[in-house]
Amino acid sequence: MLELTGVSYRYAGYATEVLHDIDLRLADGEIVGLVGPNEAGKSTLCLVASGLAPASVGGSLRGTLTLDGTPAAGLATHELAERVVVGFQNPNTQRSGIAATVFEEIALGPMNLGLAVAETVERTREAIERLKLEHLVLRDPQRLSGGQAQLVGIASLLAMRPRHVILDEPTAQLDPAGTRLVGEALRSLAGTGTSLLIAEHKTDLLDGLCSRIVAIDGGRIVIDGPTGEVFDDPRLTELGVERPARARLAAALATRGVEPGVLAGALEDATR
Amino acid sequence: MATVESLGAFVIGGYLGPIAIIGLAILPAAASARVAGRLVRISLLLTLPIAISVVLVSVFTRAGVHVLFSIGPFDATAEGVDFAGQTLVRLFAISTSIGLFGLTTEPRSFVLDLERRGLSPRFAFIALATLEAVPAMVERASVIASAQRARGLDTEGSVRARLRGVLPLVGPVILSSLTEVEERSLALEVRAFGRPGRRHLLWRIPDSGTQLIVRAVLLLALVAAIAGRITGTFPSLP
Amino acid sequence: MTGRAPDPGAVSTSAIRTEGLVHVYDGATRALDGVDLAIARGERVAIVGQNGSGKSTLVRHFNGLLRPTEGRVLVDGADVADRRVAHLALTVGLVFQDPDRQIFAGKVRSEVAFGPRNLGRRGAELEGAIDAALVATGLDKDAETNPYDLGYSRRKLLALASILAMGTPIVVLDEPTTGQDARGVERIHRIVAELSASGRTVVAISHDMRFVAEAFERVIVMRDGRIVLDGSPAEVFAETAWPTLASTFLEPPLAARIGARLGLGSTPTDDTLLAALAAR
Predict the structure, then answer these.
(1) Rounded to an integer, what distance in angstroms lies between the CA atom of residue C131 and that of residue C118?
(2) Facing residue for B190 by CB, picked from A81, A111, A142
(3) A117-130 and A102-112 are packed helices; what angle lies between their axes, rounded to 10 degrees?
(4) Is A271's Cβ below 8 Å from some Cβ in C?
(5) In chain A, where the domains are located
(6) Distance separating alpha carbons of residues A62 and B116, to the nearest angstrom
(7) What's the mean pLDDT in A41-50?
(8) How confident is the model over C112-134, as pLDDT tens digits?
(9) Chain B: closest CA distance from residue A95 (Å)
(10) pTM of the shown model
(11) pLDDT less than 50: residues of chain C
(12) Which chain C residues touch A261 with a CB distance below 8 Å?
């Protein structure tokens, strides 16, 4: 379990805190979606939940982050890396820059953990299978498209088999087919007991994937609840968060006096 | 091999020594790797600047008795020419041996092999990242150039116009590299690049028995040469 | 299928025309395999397709960054062959996908000034163009801010503003909505509509099918260097076109899929779907 209790955070060299009083809990196998307008603190929250803020980035943290019972405060960054990984949306920065092939790139994480060669290869293969990257294994990581690079970045994190995975806009560069692929990979991952926190704009993706949604605005959590409830909450639109299609259409139909039930069946079919 | 040959060229006196090394060891090795032509050309080009200054300095300032000709207060002596000749030959031996190394070794394999033999993973990373940095920069610079040209930056016009283009072309390369550094290093930490201790590498550089023997022989020859030189038992070669 | 056959009478009114356009990279990769295309002035066109379908290659011919291997490209009726990129920038503004690959100024305002300055704008005309671009992209209050103090999504808007200020009759956008939140996407939608309303031509590459269906009047689908579908959103996302879309690994927007399930005809956008439902 990953738990943030009463967390407030301020970046180094800045006077004001950007996160205020955050309480967030991720149970094993749970997939939680994080939504909010840009610059509300989603990325900062991802950094803090991974322990990298303040362990690597500096700054000052009030409150506590606990990883599977251990406080994160005393852990070195490589010790954090064994428990929780965080991925960012810019595929250029996620690349190591030293791998000759995609296979090597994905293998670097487990290799760095000091694992035996057989184990490294096993984990790398598993990550490649999960994200269906078999056709890219021998390619040069520098020569991939933005979408391909993003998928390789995600695979590189999954290969480390962390207990907790935090992803900041993992499908930013992906088209609908790629987005669906990531959704399936993450769903199967959660099935193994990994907990996931996914910050996204694509609420349709989160709708099918997450059991809980957390909405953040101005550095504070304003909504935290089951997916169905949260996405029907009209407050989301005020926050500047686009609701998933079913909620949007159902609400629009209601205002025009049309029975939303008509929609429900078709929606189920269409999104399968 | 490069180290041995470079040192050997110094140790063995006279002309014959270095020439022998070049002729017997370096060039045949280069020929078998099919880089002999390039090697000679590149080594000549690289040693040329130093060679010129060596010749000028040695010929005119080396203490000697047999004066060949004079320019102003400077005397060109036969001893100077002799010294210059020997130095040039040695320089060429060194540059060809280092050149051979550079042309035949794949940098990645070299670095990874070093790590396998004990180099810290962190240094290995720095070396590899530096090697890859240039092609990545070139790629980045080319995208930036396209974007700025699309905004009307003239890269085909007058010199003045092109000078004005330096900041818009170079600026983003530096700025984006700097701003990416933080996120890059975070991403590296996440993947445990900072973890102390050894790793079990996926790669193995093939190392045959022959190579092992050749290396041993060369090393022994070098040690013998140094010993010979020190104890003065080395014959004087022309 | 190569798209709508260019109408001979349209030569003089086409903003962009390509004839048998072929582009081969490195003597081996055939990125464009014979593209015939005519885009009228003031049209709003979206180009969609998988990676490697040729979309980016195609639009880079419009401002001369890439030159045809075979065939011709005409902008405003004239062949681009003899015109330099810097000169074509007067007519075609291309907004790149990654803002960090072009930002170099210390202030938002100076960054936006770069493009129009290169095109020769000065004085009140220049300042006016910059002001308008900043207001449209919501950056007017940040004119003196350092671009890197803005978040990524606002830097993307800055890149857009930099091209808008150039006042080019044709504007090409490469994935304008990636990384934007809902408000950002709405803003881009508004900008596209305003550009078109003022007679300017807008071409956008996007993989956001909903944005494409709602903001554009014409959708061109590419696969393997060719155009495979070309029509209005209602035509391109209609059920009859789905097999072709599927062959390019694209999916129609959700509204279209629901409309088809309910037998309402082609309803590519939320609004058309709702209208069709209400009418039933």
Answers:
(1) 17
(2) A81
(3) 130
(4) yes
(5) 2-234, 242-272
(6) 43
(7) 95
(8) 999 999 999 999 999 999 999 99
(9) 8
(10) 0.84
(11) 1-3, 6, 10-11
(12) none
